[in-house]
Amino acid sequence: MPPETLAAFLDHGRVARTVDSGLAEAEQEVIQLARIGIDLNKVAKKLEREGIEKFTQSFTALLDRIKQPQPA
Asked: pTM of the full predicted structure?
């Protein structure tokens, strides 16, 4: 997990089941976004791509750190 994500959660995150709450309101929001020309699928794909890039960077940094020689 990127450090920024952990910091954001520690700052204002909370653990709760929310996946199925507010569905009617969410559907209306999606309709409104489409009306003003915002393609939610494009936005989601961009966020997914950026998330994968961040994860890859963090994972590569971890592997590089593991590969470094350790002091005896």
From this structure: 0.55
